Amino acid sequence: MAAADRIESLIARMTIDEKVGQLGVFADMVRPFAPDVNPEANVHNAGEVLQQVREGRVGSLFNGVGAELGRKIQKVAIEESRLGIPVILAADVIHGMRTVFPIPLGEAASFEPALAERTARATAIEATAAGLHWTYAPAVDIARDQRWGRGAEGAGEDVVLGAAFAAARVRGFQGEDPTAHDSLVATPKHFAAYGAVAAGMEYSSVDIAPQTLRDVHLPPFKAAFDAGALSVMSSFNDINGVPASANHELLTGILRGEWKFAGPVVSDYTADMELIAHGYAADERDATKKAFLAGLDLSMQSGFYAAHLPSLVESGEVPMEWLDQSVRRMLELKQRIGLFDDPYRSLDPAREADATHIPAHDMLSREAARRSVVLLKNHGGVLPLKTSEQKIALIGPFVQDRENIEGCWTLFGDKARYVTLESGVRAAIGDPGALAVVAGCGLEEALEGGIDAAVAAAQAADVVVLALGEPQRFSGEAQSRTEITLPPAQQALAEAVAATGKPMVVLLRNGRALALSGAVRDAAAIVVTWYLGTQTGHGVADVLFGHYNPSGRLPISFPQVSGQQPYFYNHLRTGRPELPSMTEYKARWRELPNEPLYPFGHGLSYTTFEYGAPQLSSAALGWDDTLTITTHITNTGGVAGEEVVQLYLHDRVASRVRPVRELKGFRKILLAPGESAEVVFTLDRRVLAFTNPNGEFAAEPGLFDLWVCASAKSGEPVQFELRGE
Ligand code: NOJ
Asked: Which of 131, 403, 409, 437 has the fewest Cβ atoms within 10 angstroms?
């Protein structure tokens, strides 16, 4: 039977309970469940879940793993339920399964979407081997406020970078053939504007101009759909007072009407239930009706759809055709990934056994780790370190730690394989006697005698490597902070060690931008290492000792102090900009200049690069033409290195105030010492378009500034004109 006929014939035969069964997603209590994420809601026991599968009341289950048990559930669905509709098995597999890759924010620092595609592919291979079909990833939220903890899951503050990584991750998870046994359905989330919560406070309100919503927060979703994403997850927040999970304009107007997206929308966890707490729905029935009619196809975990959709359909408040349409979307998803033809796809215990440890994924984890590291500062060339003839004091609470390696939202990582910083450094140096290791303090607390031991080790060493940062539970879901600083116990350790006067390299472990101060800010070298995953120790050591020349760039601005938040480089122009010569009555804080400590796009290498002036193919871009920008880049240092060449634009006069600069393109190039390359960008007017006050997406003729440079704060602009039609 043709696919569409099969689905229609099923819908025609389904009872209303079977239909709503397809529209609920429940945490899987049959298989090992990860209890440390998500609050408990309507918990079901194993027997109950299987019985419901038997009765055709369960369309999908999430956050359990294991091919054997998945098979068992599928067998019940196929052989014992009336219509034999297969279940789809989901989980939050965000940045690795058994092998853990850098947190997505860290990986974005590579400025290599192709790398993210590879790590997502490896993740899909391991996740599908463990009996999964569907991941709730990638998170594609743009995070402009570093107090918000979930920036760690996305690609940072920039829309072009965010869209590129969103698309790459979708391609990686799903692969080329969605029916392949190693294809994992992607779910871009959280739709939408979740990263714009007021004051960076998790689950808070989003009050946002429609233009900002469209120009900043929606493009990564569109890019994910254009890359083929088969489902999407709605967000918890409201947008201008209407919760996203019951937002008709968003879930139906934009998603279906404008973008023609055909896959199912799943609620973020109990977002339908939360309409009551929002004060947007009076009770369960009202919440169900509002969410469903707005366009939310699937209800996760609350059980509201199963409980209330039948009576809403009976009363005519929810048309049966609408119910059928959502069921159709879910069945089509199952069809698209081949579950009707091969219900046991991805449920093969033999493949699972073979995939528990794939050595090539360790190599990829190491590569991704070192490519994600950002060298912020390297005063006096203190880095790279020597592997011999140098006594190193490796100090800090992260040195031997194994609990803060994987980063947030890692449910299934193989902890036994995690490489600590100490192991990585030990493996890199020749003489074990050249390394002294001291914790110095705990993550948040002083250790008795800790500082004394650290100071003694520093005094006996030629160089100090101090590993500091946020405990990993400081970022991720529900982890907003008011002060994005290091814990005081760690700061005290840094001050004491710095007082020895020994050259100090600070390694930061972080899930957001940090406001660095005192001895940490003033260290000779500062290296951002995020949470790098399984191969953390080796990845960091590769950079420390120069076996890999760092090439990461910041995907978020590092402010000077927490109070600058929200701080993002591409803010709109003010009528009273801060000027070096005049500071009164200007857009500025009393205490310090507006500049960040380290801007978006910044990152050093062990070599240096020189940029020629960008050459434009023409001083004017015709309305239907393209403009080519060619820039000569030279490696002027002594070692091979990769540079991330960045293209920024600024629209001088427009019908809506425009950002001071916006990233429009980037290229990562590898140059041998002395080598030069021409880096070419091409523009047409679509790249210059924005959403105007009337809501139209269009470019406006006039003058533009353009930079080809190494960060959002560097380079000299050149001008060009966009001519009208
Ligand atoms: C809540 C989180 O916001 C979301 O990202 C996740 O996918 C769901 N819980 C399911 O675990």
From this structure: 403
Q: What is the CATH number of the domain that holds 718?
A: 2.60.40.10
Which of 28, 158, 182, 268 is an active site residue? Answer: 268
Domain range holding 435?
381-564
Token code pair at residue 461: 């060493």
Residues 504, 524: Cα–Cα separation, whole Å: 6
Would you say residue 645 lies in a domain? yes
DSSP string, 237-261: SEETTEEGGG-HIIIIIIIIIIT--
Q: Would you say 7 and 332 are in contact if contact means Cβ atoms under 8 Å apart? A: yes
Q: What residues contact residue 582 under an 8 Å CB cut-off, 6+ apart?
A: none
pTM over 0.85: yes
Is the Cβ atom of 382 under 6 angstroms away from ligand 1? no
- Whether residue 324 lies inside any domain: the answer is no
Residue pLDDT, tens place only, 367-376: 999 999 999 9
The neighbour count for residue 208, using CB atoms within 10 Å, is 18
Distances (CA, A) of 105 to 111, 157, 202, 667, 673: 10, 10, 17, 18, 30
| Residue 414 designated active-site | no
Q: Which residues pair with 96 in a beta bridge?
A: 100
How many angstroms does the Cα of residue 139 sit away from the middle of ligand 1?
A: 10
Give pLDDT tens digits for 182-216. Answer: 999 999 999 999 999 999 999 999 999 999 999 99
- Mutate which of 132, 136, 148 to test ligand 1's pocket (most atoms within 8 Å of Cβ)? 136
Residue 622 lies in a domain: yes
**Residue 616 pairs with which residues in a beta bridge?**
629
Do 429 and 545 lie in a common domain?
yes
pLDDT tens digits for range 572-609: 999 999 988 887 899 999 999 899 999 999 999 999 99
Instruction: Identify whether 480 is part of a domain.
Output: yes
Report the C-alpha gap between 266 and 282 in whole angstroms: 22
- Look at residue 579 in the predicted model and tell me its pLDDT: 87
> 228 and 170 in contact (C-beta within 8 Å)?
yes
Gyration radius of the chain's alpha carbons: 26
Which CATH number is 456's domain given? 3.40.50.1700
pLDDT per residue as tens digits for the range 135-181: 999 999 999 999 999 999 999 999 999 999 999 999 999 999 999 99
**pLDDT over 80 at 277, yes or no:** yes
Contacts of 280 (CB under 8 A, 6+ apart): 238, 242, 243, 246, 287, 290
Distance CA 99, CA 663 (A): 32
HSE-CB for 357 with a 13 A CA cutoff: 7
